[in-house]
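Title: Prediction job returns without error message
Component: structure pipeline
Severity: low
Priority: P3
Assignee: unassigned

Description:
Job completed but the reporter wants confirmation the result is attached to the right record. Sequence as submitted:
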Amino acid sequence: MSRHVARITDVGQLRTHLLAFRRSQRLTQADLAARLGVSKQRISAIEAAPQRITVEQFMSLLRAMRVELHLVTPDDAGPSVVREGW
């Protein structure tokens, strides 16, 4: 199994990296669906729009792919950006 490391700074990057993680483990959508107890269509929908799932669902997806989530601050961290709605 090849190692895949992702630096994600924007929700738009999730789709690309979720696909890469799944494929790096040679999992099909059907394989991942079986691990999660959902349909292949649900995995397809998640991969198409991962920003629409809950944090709980996201964490379950990562666990099913045996992926760890690490949160880090950049070395050159400047002021935090707070977006409207927070």
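Comment from assignee: result matches the submitted record. The two ends are 39 Å apart (CA to CA).
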